[in-house]
Amino acid sequence: ALLLHLFYRQWQLAPRLAAPFETHLARGLLLAIAAGCLFNSLLLDHTEGLLYAWMTGLAYGGLQSSPRATHAKPR
Fold first, then answer.
1. N or C end: fewer C-beta atoms under 10 angstroms in the chain?
2. How confident is the model at residue 52 (pLDDT cuts 50, 70, 90)?
3. By residue range, what is the domain housing residue 29?
């Protein structure tokens, strides 16, 4: 259940990424891993698990903490 919730949250947060290409990349990764997990647990395999972790970090690394985040002006 936690893995499905993680996939759901990542799918929800994908449109908040900076560029449409990043949104498509993040959602494509989720679809590939979800489809692979239907037949075999890809996340337990060393290479596929590292690919998912690495690509998730790269894709969501630039995500802002909230959609209405305002930056404090330096004094």
1. C
2. very high
3. 17-60
